[in-house]
Write a structure and sequence with these properties.
Number of strands: 13
Pfam families: Exo_endo_phos_2, PRY, SPRY
Shape: elongated
Function: Neurotoxin that produces dose-dependent hypolocomotion and hyperalgesia in mice. May directly act on the central nervous system, as it is 6500-fold more potent when administered intracerebroventricularly than intraperitoneal.
Keywords: Membrane, Neurotoxin, Toxin, Transmembrane, Transmembrane helix
Protein name: B30.2/SPRY domain-containing protein
Oligomer: single chain
Helix content: 10-25%
CATH class of the largest domain: Mainly Beta
Strand content: 25-35%
Order of helices and strands: HHHEEEEEEEEEEEEE
CATH superfamily of the largest domain: SPRY domain
Number of helices: 3
Structural class: alpha+beta
Radius of gyration: 33 Å
CATH topology of the largest domain: Jelly Rolls
GO molecular function: catalytic activity
Number of domains: 2
CATH architecture of the largest domain: Sandwich
Largest sheet: 7 strands, antiparallel
Length: about 280
């Protein structure tokens, strides 16, 4: 234990054992050392403590330092084992509680905003079904409409609360993407489905090599045993949580845990290429 530079130093002296052959000169020498120590800015008090101060280490023999060091390593190993066991519990239990939490989100009846739909997309009369086509329709290119990417936004806008909706997938020859996007997401030109663009989504791509899923966050491929026929999107605006799961099996697919919406309104997001239909359930 040591005092910091500039702080007042105090010493507590207890009863000391003096050998019978201790001379008066030796006692005087010891008293002088104590007086000198009390004048110093930093005083080290020897005692029973777990982690030694460097001054204490320097004053000990090599053997004592080795024993103390081994004790410290042993304590550190025990602490590390406890931490790792807690981490294992966290990563084992967390997905279960996350799924349990999402199951209490209120369902949202999502509809598609026709004013944002790319001209190749056909929207049903009830605005809950969108199909990708080969030819563009004769529609005005308003600022709200996507002009290069076959995307469309949902009519619902969220600034708070917890919500979820299901998307049913039909025909996956080219792929699809579902998620959420900021209302201010760029509508003109080509873009990546990434949080930097204001999009949090999972994307299914059917390439010449093999079909695969990937995240919009880092273009990371997801390993799924079979194609999805239905995806559940869950949103917790305040917590910055965007989660995807398979409602048919109850299995979690992926979760964006720290989505930054910057206080903007967010809405459902869909990418619907040719020969693909998405139904909002």
């Amino acid at each position: 234990m040591a005092s910091l530079p500039g702080q007042k130093t105090s010493l507590t002296l207890g009863t000391c054992y003096c050998p019978p052959n201790q001379t008066q000169e030796g006692n005087q020498h010891l008293e002088n050392e104590v007086k000198e120590a009390s004048k110093k800015e930093r005083v080290v008090i020897m005692g029973d403590f777990n982690y030694p101060h460097i001054d204490w280490v320097n004053s000990c023999s090599t053997y004592e330092r080795e024993i103390t060091f081994l004790d410290m390593l042993n304590n550190l190993q025990k602490m590390l084992c406890v931490c790792l066991s807690k981490c294992d519990d966290y990563f084992t239990i967390y997905p279960f509680f996350l799924f349990l939490l999402i199951s209490f989100f209120p369902a949202v009846l999502v509809t598609v905003d026709q004013e944002t739909a790319h001209p190749r997309l056909s929207v049903s009369e009830n605005q809950r079904r969108v199909t990708g086509g080969e030819k563009c329709q004769n529609l005005p290119f308003t600022p709200e409409r996507f002009d290069k990417m076959s995307c469309v936004l949902g009519c619902e806008k969220f600034t708070a609360g917890r919500h979820y909706w299901d998307v049913e997938i039909e025909g996956t020859r080219a792929g699809w993407a579902v998620g959420v996007a900021r209302e201010s997401v760029r509508r003109k030109g080509y873009m990546k489905f990434s949080p930097e663009e204001g999009i949090w989504a999972i994307q299914y791509l059917c390439t010449s090599e093999m079909p695969f899923f990937q995240l919009s966050a880092s273009q990371t491929k997801l390993s799924l045993s079979k194609p999805l026929s239905r995806v559940q999107v869950s949103l917790d605006y305040k917590a910055g949580l965007v989660a995807f799961s398979d409602p048919c099996s109850g299995r979690s697919i992926f979760t964006f845990s720290f989505a930054c919406f910057s206080g903007e309104r967010v809405c459902p997001f869909f990418w619907v290429p040719q020969i693909c239909t998405l139904n909002c359930c």
